[in-house]
Amino acid sequence: MDNILDYVKKKWKQLTAFSNKEEIKEQLWEEILYRYSEQHRHYHNLTHIAFLYSLCDQHLDRILNPAVTGFAILYHDIVYDTYRPDNEEQSAALAESHLKQLNVNSRIIENIKTFIIATKDHKVPQGFALKNDLGLFLDFDIAILGAEAETYKAYSEKIRQEYLKYPDDVYKAGRKQALQKVLESEKIFITNDFVETMEETARKNINSEVGQL
């Protein structure tokens, strides 16, 4: 993969190539870069965004609306504060604000917002027109759960770093509860590709972390 920053900026340029508002595009990019470079981000940063884009590239032949998926990837964690319960809603609102400045079609913006807000519970709304794209996007977002054990361990350590303001007992209780909720799901992943290739490994990784909390 290219340098992470260059790779993500290239995606931004591709997504916004339709617009000739160069000054506004540069201003928006600077805000995107600023937010994903915040010091409290150890996992939810540009590396995470680049990882999702790499998965998107691998599955591009199955994605009906690459623009919606591409913008959703970029904006889904743009607001990230571990004190807030509404990061997804705030991220969706900021995406809307940015994309309106580029005159993106309102229906496209609404779809992007639906993608972003769906990361809150990782469920596809019933009857949603882009359900297949959304299912893939949601699986991209949690694909780290099905990574090799060492990669998963590094991920879990980065998540802990993002919650350093919480003492160990509080963090461990909350993390354990969240992970057990994932394990209680009939399926962690949505699409068949991810269920077949990552489900078993994800459950092993999560069970291992729960056992250490």
TrEMBL record:
PANTHER family: HD PHOSPHOHYDROLASE FAMILY PROTEIN-RELATED (PTHR21174:SF0), PTHR21174. InterPro entries: HD_phosphohydro. SUPFAM superfamilies: HD-domain/PDEase-like (SSF109604). It comes from the Bacteria. This is Metal-dependent phosphohydrolase.
